[in-house]
Amino acid sequence: MSAVDLDLLADYVGGALDGTPEHDRVARLVADDPAWRSAAADLRSALLLVDADLAALAAAAEPMPDDIAARFDTLLASPEFAASPAAPARSGVGERTLSRDARGARPARRGWRRWAAPVAVAVGVLALAGVVLPLGPLATTRQEAATGMSAEDAPAVAPADGRTPISASGTDYLREQLGDADVMTQKSAPSASAARTGDTQLYTSPMPGLDRLSGSADALASCLAAIRTALPGTVTGADFARFEGRPALVVTVDTTSGGWWFVAGPGCGLNGADELFRSHRN
Fold first, then answer.
1. 10 Å Cβ neighbour count for 272?
2. What is d(CA 149, CA 19) in angstroms, rounded to the nearest whole number?
3. Would you place residue 246 in the very low, low, confident or very high pLDDT band (cuts 50, 70, 90)?
4. What residues contact 155, with CB distance under 8 A and at least 6 apart?
5. How far apart are CA 281 and CA 185, in angstroms?
6. Which residues pair with 173 in a beta bridge?
7. Which pLDDT score is estimated for 183?
8. Dihedral sign (CA 250, 253, 258, 259)
């Protein structure tokens, strides 16, 4: 038998020829030719031995060779795998805009009730985890007058022990509004019981672009920590909303230099605060 014949016979024994015309031809050769029949028997015996060896190897964990392990240790200790140093804390000075993407059309604020529930869930888990947000409700804006929706109308979670509510107003904030000292009007946040009465409304999905933050307490906590690193101070409120048509978390921060607005994008907490805008609040 030639090498080509043995290769074809191996395909036959291994099942690679099933359903092909070659399968029937090789089957006839195995049945009629003693050389093919003997070779097929040898291949089947060899396959059984290979299966047994593979089963034995799978049953016992094979340790990594010392030289390979040492190479991995050296690689992981190299600068390429070193953690990126955290950005130094900056004092908030002046107004900053880090993204000037095309703003596009700002969609209507319909549907905010559908994505408020995941925000409430995330805040509830934050409270259970011991993450305390200091007291201080978010602002209302001039846009409330245009939309007819006030801070009392927006869904929010306000724990009864005085922690800051995290609201989901859906407000589309403008930089001109956030730069105005009169943009904030202090209002009392809805109580925890009032927030619970909203269970008669149907909340089906988070706001597109903010579902990672609204659906995970850990993601939201990482975002707020990144904001405190970028703008050292006390977070006094957070609103799942929009900034000039883009999904954003609008946060109020009190620092030694005064109050600030800080607008974070959907990537907040992944690699920094994903800062879109900041401005003095008063």
1. 17
2. 69
3. very high
4. 112, 113, 116, 117, 119, 120, 167, 168, 169, 195, 198
5. 11
6. 243
7. 54
8. positive
Residue 119 predicted with pLDDT over 80? no
Domains of the chain: which residue ranges? 3-59, 109-280
C-alpha to C-alpha distance for 120 and 21, rounded to whole angstroms: 65
Q: Which residues contact 76 (CB under 8 A, 6 or more apart)?
A: none
Q: What is the pLDDT of residue 128?
A: 47
List the one residue out of 121, 102, 261 whose CA is nearest residue 178. 261
Helix, strand, coil in percent for the chain, rounding step 5: 40, 15, 45
C-alpha 186, offset from chain centre: 32
Burial of 200 (0-12, 13-18, 19+ CB in 10 A): exposed
Structure token pair of residue 113: 């009730």
Cα separation, 233 vs 231, in Å, equals 6
Q: What is the pLDDT of residues 167-198, one digit of tens each?
A: 888 889 998 888 665 554 433 333 333 333 33
Confidence band of 60 (pLDDT split at 50, 70, 90): confident
Per DSSP, helices labelled H in the chain are 3-14, 21-32, 34-59, 66-76, 116-128, 143-147, 175-178, 192-196, 211-214, 217-230
Helices (H), 77-216: 116-128, 143-147, 175-178, 192-196, 211-214
CA atoms of 196 and 134, how far apart (whole Å): 21
- Per the document, the length of the chain is 282
- Dump pLDDT digits (tens) for 196-228: 333 323 233 456 789 899 888 889 989 999 999
Segment 229-258 mean pLDDT: 91
Residue 266, Cβ neighbours under 10 Å: how many?
20
